[in-house]
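Question (not urgent): is this output format expected?
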Amino acid sequence: MRGRRLVTAPTAPLRALPDYLIIGGQRCGTTSLQRYLIQHPAVVAPGVLKGIHYFDMNFAEGETWYRSQFPMRITRALRGRGGVATLTGEASPYYMFHPLGAERIAATVPAAKLIALVRHPVDRAYSHYLHEVRRGFEDHSFEEAIDLEPERLAGEQARIRQDPSYVSFAHQHHSYAARGMYADQLEHLAKHVPREQILVVSSEEMFADAAASYGRVLEFLGLEPFTPADFATQNANVYREPIPQAARARLAAVFAEPNRRLEAFVGRSFGWDG
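Got this back:
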């Protein structure tokens, strides 16, 4: 990314800002959805396929740096000859959970359409945990990590708000249960971005019928119907061991009320039982 910046920074004023953002959640299929979208003939991919992380980790780099990640406006115009609108966008799954993400997005790209993927929060938490273990960022058992989470996250959100340059390792990597509180995140987002600019997509539905979910996303973005070359799943975890039943039951109880609020926000049930 640094090397690309040296080449693209001088032309940043001539570059586009994103028309859409896939804002999360983590371990919910954001990489897969971005790969599906950039196959569309009317979508121009950014220089970095996924994870620019401007509105969370790299905001101090400034808007010129962010623009440098995207295609030239003339490139979009050439791709859009014949009256076909072209879009560009990116996917950074920390945006939805970051305490300052919503405000920063609203201030920088107020017209952007935002796509939030949500997954059964217990399954998401366990997938997140396995991801951190695999990366060497977690050495506790799943149950221990859940027990430690309140202590690890204590005060971190306030620190981020007080010092926008502060990057919290624990908030990013050890937020197994907290990231599954989707209602809190979406209700906060809707205070800064018009509700009609937010689409919530179920990960389970997307992977059960990718074509149907993809069609909903294209309609939301105002794009013509299209079928990608394939709907391969990216970055999927293979569970060698299932989620411990005691931990599943415990977390299911924790998420029961937030899930009801999520369903009220979206206007339908996701069928997340247990």
